[in-house]
Automatic annotation (TrEMBL), chain A:
This is DUF934 domain-containing protein. Pfam families: DUF934. InterPro entries: UCP030820. It comes from the Bacteria.
From TrEMBL, chain B:
It comes from Antarcticimicrobium luteum. GO terms for molecular function: 4 iron, 4 sulfur cluster binding; heme binding; metal ion binding; oxidoreductase activity. PANTHER family: BLR3264 PROTEIN, FERREDOXIN--NITRITE REDUCTASE, CHLOROPLASTIC. This is Nitrite/sulfite reductase. It comes from the Bacteria. Keywords: 4Fe-4S, Heme, Iron, Iron-sulfur, Metal-binding, Oxidoreductase. Residues 52-110, 345-395 form the Nitrite/Sulfite reductase ferredoxin-like domain. Residues 119-271, 408-545 form the Nitrite/sulphite reductase 4Fe-4S domain.
Length: 147, 554
């Protein structure tokens, strides 16, 4: 699986689309890059433990949608107490949107090609990710997102 | 037996609607073939040699009569009139068309069945002892915990895109009938100081690198199960190799990092995850347990059984092989063999499924089980009903008296259905069964597990067969390798290879020589093949296999 989107530093191109529960939008992050961090699938959440308080946006890269390590990274970051924006960046499918939200991501950033192939309605269809969530039920929470 | 809650029903309906949309989006090009593949796999749809295959989960092997009838309906409506029970408590339909599959899933949903996570790099259907809740030797029924695991693993957001498939099995009895040691995680209910807990095994698996699971935690309190499983899975998700499909299973992760280091990582994570679980899971577990309360067993004497046992040798032979001790002395566990001599192991026709459903309703408190040995089980039958049940089974061709014997063979689909196969396995099973039926040696030989796989992926569990047969491709010719001494029970052991393999037309005579040698070498009818093998080692069996072949060749 190749994905060229990830060769480009996220945020520098208008060629990417941000997906949230509200649908598609442009990246609205305008803070300094010093307040951001980017993790690759084989990084560990612990690598950021010293900087966590100073971070407002953490990007977790998904070079290939079939590599699910980023979901565990998201859980780990939330469990470490990170409360800032958490973004999945790269080859994430509309079908994975609910998983990403439940794992603790706030948003997904995809490239324009993918956004064209999987248009907004296909993502919106998963905006109800808080429903039908076994994890929330087993943990006694109303929604799936880790506290 | 577990009945779906409103939550389960709504979840499943939504999930099926999602898959229906995914099929449409694939057909319209919104999803590429690569992107669609894991999505169809996590919904049980597999691409086989000739067609798509749908693998339906039979959670912890338990079905009621209506569910069995629905399986029959699917076989008739969308397949060729039969289904194939697998070694992991699933049923496979080998000929559905992709556009029909969403309808099949909806039909399954009507009776609380699904195909979720029966394929793909996800946590698969959790398997359990097929005698659960009925066996005389049980510490506790493992199915409530298996159902809890089903709910936890279903659509778990963190573990839908693992490095490789992940299989969990659970047993509540010391006589491990769920082959827990050959699973990524094996769970065994144990008792310590009057408290029930779980022994957790990790890293077992067959396939091209067979390994027996190692103990990760000797005693895990029941209430810690989900956070502990989550710690193991998260550790594996991060650590497991993704560079090489053949090194991606957790058994390789454990092998490469060592059990001590894995244990340290898992325990560290467990400490972090444990506080996430504040008791809601235990409240759900109690509700689940209430649903698994045993049926209201009826009393009454067993005279009808005792009389038939004394008078009818056909009934007696069936009763001797196909019954297992029930927790109540006046009941029995009945195994229905899907291994009639010459039939395809594990196949059942729609008619047979319906008859079994009817019999379960009539004599078996509406319960059926599927065993990993590919047979169907009626877990609770009052002994006085056994003669009538036997007569009804006989009329349907379902009274083969061979459970645990040489013709009760596990065989994977092999070259007849599987795209990965290097050799046929079903026909070899059929020939062995037919041959020993002709020789009338089956009952003399006694307990014997032959397991056949059509390639090194080992879906037929050949490594843990007393005799394992592995079909390979040697320069375009099928060649069958034999392993001896494997055992899938509590002291799981991998079989050892005897030497060079045999071509298709020599494998049955080779097995025959092995059996004749065993009958010769054993200390008496009480000494099983496995015991004789353990006492004498491989040498006398190797000479039975190879010396005579050499003589013949000379
Ligand atoms: C205003 C209301 C809604 C609209 C306009 C809407 C529209 C859509 C559209 C356009 C699609 C995508 C079809 C495609 O694949 O091209 C879709 C899919 C879907 N919708 Fe909705 N929807 C609505 C409400 C809901 C609700 C309330 C639910 C569930 C409770 C729901 C569940 C789904 C599901 C499960 C899919 C399939 C998703 C997939 O796997 O791709 N929708 N919807
Ligand atoms: S063992 Fe090989 S041939 Fe048999 S079902 Fe598995 S992959 Fe196919």
């Amino acid at each position: 699986m190749t994905d060229t989107a990830l060769e480009i530093a996220p945020g520098t191109l208008p060629e990417t689309v941000l997906v949230t529960d509200a649908g598609f939008s442009r990246d609205d992050w305008s803070g300094p890059e010093t307040r951001t961090a980017t993790l690759a699938p084989d990084d560990r959440a612990g690598e950021l433990s010293d900087r966590l308080c100073g971070l407002e946006l953490i990007r977790v890269r998904f070079p290939a949608f079939a590599d699910g390590r980023g979901f565990t990274l998201a859980r780990d970051l939330r469990r470490m107490g990170y409360r800032g924006r958490l973004r999945a960046v790269g080859h994430v499918l509309a079908d994975q949107y609910a998983m990403a939200r439940r794992a603790g991501f706030d948003e997904v950033e995809i490239d324009a090609d993918l956004a064209a192939r999987q248009p907004e309605n296909q993502w919106r269809a998963r905006a109800n990710w808080q429903a039908h969530d076994y994890q929330a039920r087993l943990r006694g929470r109303s929604s799936g997102a880790p506290a | 037996m577990y009945r779906y809650t409103d939550f389960d029903k709504a979840f499943l309906a939504t999930r099926n609607a999602q898959f229906r949309a995914q099929v449409e989006r694939r057909l319209k090009g919104h999803l590429t073939e690569d992107e669609f593949k894991p999505l169809r796999l996590m919904n049980g749809v597999y691409l086989q040699l000739h067609a798509y295959m749908l693998r339906v989960a039979i959670p912890y092997g338990t079905l009621n009569a209506d569910q069995m009838r629905q399986l029959a309906y699917l076989a008739e409506r969308w397949d060729k009139g039969y289904g194939h029970f697998t070694t992991r408590q699933n049923i496979q339909y080998n000929w559905p068309k992709l556009p029909d599959i969403p309808d099949m899933l909806d039909a399954l949903g009507e009776v609380g069945l699904h195909a979720i996570q029966t394929s793909g790099n996800t946590i698969r259907n959790t398997t359990a002892d097929p005698f659960a809740g009925a066996a005389a030797d049980e510490i506790a029924d493992p199915r409530p915990l298996a159902e809890l695991i089903r709910q936890w693993s279903t659509d778990h957001p963190e573990f839908q895109f693992l490095g490789r498939k992940f299989k969990i099995a659970i047993t509540g009895s010391a006589d491990d009938r769920a082959v827990t040691a050959a699973h990524d995680i094996g769970l065994r209910i144990v008792e310590k100081n009057g408290e029930q807990g779980l022994q957790v095994l990790i890293g077992g698996g067959l396939g091209r690198t067979p390994m027996i699971g190692q103990v990760l935690r000797d005693f895990l309190p029941r209430a810690d199960l989900l956070p502990y499983l989550e710690a193991v899975l998260a550790t594996y998700n991060q650590l497991g190799r993704r560079d090489n499909k053949y090194k991606a299973r957790i058994k390789i992760t454990v092998h490469e990092h060592g059990i001590e280091s894995i244990r340290a990582m898992v325990e560290g994570r467990f400490a972090q995850i444990r506080p996430d679980f504040t008791g809601a899971d235990q409240a759900l577990l109690r509700a689940i347990e209430a649903q698994f309360a045993p049926p209201a067993f009826r009393g009454g004497n067993t005279e009808a059984h005792d009389a038939a046992y004394g008078a009818d040798p056909v009934f007696r032979s069936w009763a001797d092989t196909n019954l297992a001790p029930h927790r109540r002395a006046d009941h029995a566990i009945v195994s229905i063999s899907l291994k009639a001599h010459g039939a395809t192991p594990g196949d059942a026709s729609a008619d047979q499924m319906r008859s079994m459903a009817d019999l379960a309703e009539r004599y078996g408190y509406d319960e059926l089980r599927i065993s990993h040995e590919q047979n169907v089980i009626l877990p609770h039958v009052h002994k006085s009903d056994l003669p009538a049940l036997h007569a009804a089974l006989k009329a349907q061709g379902l009274a083969t008296a061979n459970i645990g014997l040489i013709s009760d063979i596990i065989a994977c689909p092999g070259m007849d259905y599987c795209a990965l196969a290097t050799a046929r396995s079903i026909p070899i099973a059929q020939e062995i069964a037919t041959r020993f039926d002709e020789l009338k040696l089956e009952h003399d030989i006694g307990p014997m597990k032959i397991k056949i796989s059509g390639c090194i992926n080992a879906c037929g569990h050949h490594h843990v067969g007393h005799i394992g047969i592995l079909g390979l491709d040697r320069a375009g010719v099928e060649n069958y390798q034999i392993t001896l001494g494997g055992d899938g029970g509590p002291d799981a052991t991998l079989g050892s290879r005897t030497g060079p393999g045999f071509p298709a037309d020599e494998i049955v005579p080779a097995i025959e020589r092995l059996m004749l040698a065993y009958l010769d070498l054993r200390q008496g009818p009480g000494e099983t093949f496995l015991a004789t093998y353990r006492r004498l080692g491989a040498d006398p069996f190797k000479s039975a296999l190879y010396d005579s072949a050499r003589t013949k060749a000379a």
